[in-house]
């Protein structure tokens, strides 16, 4: 057991797959190659505040996800290990839920992130999808009947919002293909020692290492969450405003003034306005001082109706 623990760093885990494909925001292929070729484990890094909070909140996120899925946790602290083509691999899902031997199991990956709302609207980022697929591959290679991987993400500002559940779809051919990519990468760059070519991901990592950076703490997380949620609120409000103004403009027809029912009080106006715009580029092309005629020729006039609420 001690030998397995001390050589754990030389296995490919769920977070490493994104480094192999160049989609990891945290690591590069070069860093992964150095780690897997190192005769000794890398020096332990001091955990960031984000990592500490993620660990502390993980159990709560999993508990909420189980409640939302109406399922019970079947296994705690499970690690799937397997090997292929001389490549050792492992996967550690945050929760395995369901009833073993009765129904297919569900694997859960818990995330504490300020991007949860964006993941719901725009889809999971590639590195998270790959992590979920790696969990499914680990279960399949260990003979575990799991048919679903769910990402449970939480990141509401100041504790607002709820856990968002997003499924990572997969099938066996896709998992086999992903494993083949990892095994081939391991053969070329670990077993045969082929250098890893610089990728866009690794170049971004190198640029970050060369520039001055600052580590954001809990205060920064709260501010980022607040900014993101406020922007989303403003965007929704602007959309509602545009729809309301368009609908109100239709009520005017060709009229320019709207009165309150039974009174002469002006509620709103929708009046024609002219806007003049000078094409300064056209003026600059003239090889003579601009005259009043030049300015007039370069000026365009657009007519619009301006809605005003009183």
In short:
The protein is 46% helix and 21% strand.
The CA-CA distance between the termini, in Å, is 77 Å
Quaternary organisation of the protein chains: single chain
CATH architecture of the largest domain: Alpha-Beta Complex
Strand order of the largest sheet: 1-4-5-6-7
Query: Any idea what the shape is?
Result: elongated
| Poorly predicted tracts of residues | 1-6, 201-208
Based on helices, strands and strand pairing, what is the structural class?
alpha+beta
Instruction: Tell me the number of structural domains.
Output: 2
SSE series: HHHHEEEEEHHEEHHHEEHHE
DSSP strand content: 15-25%
Main sheet characteristics: 5 strands, mixed
CATH topology of the largest domain: Lambda Exonuclease, Chain A
Total beta strand runs = 10
Rg result: 29 Å
What is the residue-mean pLDDT, rounded to a whole number?
81
The CATH class of the largest domain, by name, is: Alpha Beta
Count of helix runs: 11
Helix amount, in percent? Answer: 40-55%
């Amino acid at each position: 057991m001690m030998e397995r623990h001390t050589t754990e760093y030389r296995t490919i885990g769920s977070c490493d797959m994104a480094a192999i494909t160049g989609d990891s925001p945290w690591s590069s292929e070069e860093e992964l190659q150095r780690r897997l070729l190192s005769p000794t484990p890398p020096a332990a890094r001091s955990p960031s505040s984000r990592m500490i909070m993620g660990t502390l909140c993980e159990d709560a996120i999993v508990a909420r996800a189980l409640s939302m899925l109406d399922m019970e946790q079947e296994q705690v602290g499970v690690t799937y290990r397997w090997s292929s083509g001389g490549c050792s691999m492992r996967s550690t899902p945050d929760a395995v839920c369901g009833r073993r031997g009765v129904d297919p199991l569900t694997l859960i990956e818990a995330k504490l992130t300020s991007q949860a709302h964006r993941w719901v609207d725009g889809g999971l980022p590639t590195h998270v999808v790959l992590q979920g697929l790696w969990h499914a591959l680990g279960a399949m290679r260990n003979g575990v009947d799991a048919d679903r991987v769910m990402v449970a993400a939480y990141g509401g500002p100041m504790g607002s919002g709820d856990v968002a559940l997003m499924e990572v779809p997969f099938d066996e051919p896709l998992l086999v293909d992903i494993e083949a990519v990892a095994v081939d990468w391991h053969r070329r760059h670990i077993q045969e020692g082929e250098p890893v070519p610089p990728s866009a991901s690794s170049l971004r990592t190198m640029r970050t290492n060369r520039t001055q950076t600052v580590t954001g703490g809990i205060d920064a997380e709260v501010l980022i969450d607040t900014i993101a949620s406020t922007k989303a609120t403003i965007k929704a409000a602007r959309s509602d405003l545009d729809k309301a103004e368009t609908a109100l403009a239709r009520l005017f027809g060709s009229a320019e003034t709207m009165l309150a029912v039974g009174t002469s009080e002006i509620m709103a106006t929708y009046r024609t306005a002219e806007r003049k715009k000078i094409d300064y580029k056209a003026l600059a092309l003239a090889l003579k001082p601009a005259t009043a005629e030049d300015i007039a020729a370069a000026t365009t006039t657009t007519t619009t109706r301006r809605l005003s609420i009183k």
